[in-house]
């Protein structure tokens, strides 16, 4: 049974618990009009201007509007059912801290009947995540919500600090995103939860819509604009689906209003940005979005609605055949391929070829296999092993192999020569972005 909205679904002026003063200030000459009154209650001076609507509100009316809009989003979209066990993705940042506070508040106020727990992922980023997790632990005590912390090191054998040392900062967000999504799922299974809620806000979703449009990735619009989903893939070659639902109660909530709410409520949160993300592609979309918002305050929600409409149009005009789902042969995680994305990335890290799981995976895997064969001293036929490549076809299928590794079956290579060949092939693996690669004997 889904939750029903027992409250008025329209946002109205907050009824202050204290006796309402007359509108104005009394003096010997009579009542003077109240300067800059709250647009809703008209009885208290406004102290803020809502970024989303431009309304001038007092503190209590802002709290009421903020909380009621999130409640309406939850109820109107039927995000939960009574009795659901819900994990709140907690990072210690403003979004997840406000989400945890508001989820507990609304659960108690409207009797959602949810069993709430906090789930945190420790990526292993010194000076960032270790500090933010201290904030999460304080939130656990402040809100009296159980907490589970899962680390990349325990799950994968690598921390993000280790990964960045190995690969640099160019593709580190790809590794972190894939590992984080799977870690959240694994944590949810450990907690036996039905649902994960995350603090993705309206700004985050609008940025993702812009990124997908700029990349021409229309099929992903559905996933990024859906308020509830069980899609956890970041792999363009397929869709990996989890049985655990995910939702974004802050889908229509502006980031600035989340910050204002946290500030006025004096919530305890961690405000430092990830040290490895300054050059992430999302940053460019964020800057552009802020410029649009400065011109038009509704730009953020307008972009979200545009993404929803465009997504619906794509679905209506295209029939996308989803890949057959199976389980990863290595870790058992649900996947559309023999190996899930996380295992592909781990394979590359563990074998010194971090690009193995990025980009044209099939090409890189064949390069790696060729390197392994040479390292083992196997003779390679110039006509049967690998032939010159062509670019990927439009549907993403491999149309040819990647590199020609020529070694005569009648010629015995020295160990030094074999080592040079292996090094050369590994160098080629780092050039996976090129449409074609070819070597000669």
Automatic annotation (TrEMBL):
One of its GO terms (molecular function) is tRNA binding. Pathway: tRNA modification; 5-methoxycarbonylmethyl-2-thiouridine-tRNA biosynthesis. Pfam families: ATP_bind_3, zn-ribbon_14. Coiled coil: none annotated. It is found in: Cytoplasm. GO terms for cellular component: cytosolic tRNA wobble base thiouridylase complex; mitochondrion; peroxisome. Residues 86-274 form the tRNA(Ile)-lysidine/2-thiocytidine synthase N-terminal domain. CDD domains: CTU1-like. Residues 1-20 have a biased composition (Low complexity). Its EC number is 2.7.7.-. Residues 327-356 form the Cytoplasmic tRNA 2-thiolation protein 1 C-terminal domain. Keywords: Cytoplasm, RNA-binding, Transferase, tRNA processing, tRNA-binding. Residues 1-31 are annotated as: Disordered. One of its GO terms (biological process) is protein urmylation. Belongs to the TtcA family. CTU1/NCS6/ATPBD3 subfamily. Plays a central role in 2-thiolation of mcm(5)S(2)U at tRNA wobble positions of tRNA(Lys), tRNA(Glu) and tRNA(Gln). Directly binds tRNAs and probably acts by catalyzing adenylation of tRNAs, an intermediate required for 2-thiolation. It is unclear whether it acts as a sulfurtransferase that transfers sulfur from thiocarboxylated URM1 onto the uridine of tRNAs at wobble position. Prior mcm(5) tRNA modification by the elongator complex is required for 2-thiolation. May also be involved in protein urmylation. HAMAP family: CTU1. This is Cytoplasmic tRNA 2-thiolation protein 1. The gene is NCS6.
């Amino acid at each position: 049974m889904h939750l029903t909205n027992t409250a008025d679904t329209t946002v109205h002026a907050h009824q202050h618990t204290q006796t309402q003063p007359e509108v104005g200030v009394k003096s010997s000459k009579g009542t003077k009009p109240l300067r800059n009154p709250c647009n809703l209650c008209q009885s208290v001076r406004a102290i803020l201007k809502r970024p989303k609507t431009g309304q001038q509100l007092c503190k209590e009316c802002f709290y009421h509007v903020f909380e009621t809009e999130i409640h309406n989003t939850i109820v109107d979209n039927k995000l939960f059912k009574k009795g659901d066990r819900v994990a709140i993705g907690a990072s210690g940042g403003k979004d997840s801290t406000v989400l945890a506070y508001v989820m507990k508040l609304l659960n108690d106020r409207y009797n959602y009947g949810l069993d709430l727990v906090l789930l945190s992922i420790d990526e292993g980023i010194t000076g960032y995540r270790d500090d933010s997790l201290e904030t999460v632990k304080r939130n656990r005590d402040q809100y009296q919500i159980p907490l589970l912390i899962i680390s990349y090191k325990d799950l994968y054998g690598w921390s993000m600090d280790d990964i960045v040392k190995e690969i640099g900062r160019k593709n580190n967000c790809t590794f972190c995103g894939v590992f984080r999504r799977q870690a959240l799922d694994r944590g949810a299974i450990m907690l036996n939860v039905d649902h994960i809620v995350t603090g993705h806000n309206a700004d985050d979703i609008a940025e993702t819509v812009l990124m997908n449009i700029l990349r021409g990735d229309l099929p992903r619009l559905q996933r990024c604009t859906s308020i509830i989903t069980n899609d956890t893939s970041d792999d363009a070659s397929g869709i990996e689906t989890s049985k655990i639902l995910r939702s974004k109660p802050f889908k229509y909530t502006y980031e600035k209003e989340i910050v204002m709410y946290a500030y006025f409520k004096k919530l305890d949160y961690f405000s430092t940005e990830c040290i490895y993300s300054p050059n992430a592609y999302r940053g460019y979309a964020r800057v552009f979005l802020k410029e649009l918002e400065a011109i038009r305050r509704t730009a953020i929600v307008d972009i979200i609605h545009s993404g929803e409409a465009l997504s619906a149009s794509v679905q209506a005009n295209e029939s996308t055949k989803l890949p057959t789902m199976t389980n990863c042969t290595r870790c058992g995680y649900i996947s559309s391929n023999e190996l899930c994305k996380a295992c592909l990335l781990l394979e590359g890290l563990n074998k010194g070829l971090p690009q193995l799981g990025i980009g044209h995976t099939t090409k890189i895997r064949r390069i790696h296999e060729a390197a392994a064969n040479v390292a083992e001293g196997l003779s390679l036929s110039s006509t049967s092993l690998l032939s010159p490549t062509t670019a990927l076809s439009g549907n993403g299928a491999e149309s040819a192999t990647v590199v020609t590794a020529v070694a005569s079956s009648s010629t015995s290579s020295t160990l030094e020569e074999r080592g040079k060949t292996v090094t050369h092939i590994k160098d080629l693996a780092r050039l996976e972005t090129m449409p074609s690669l070819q070597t000669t004997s």
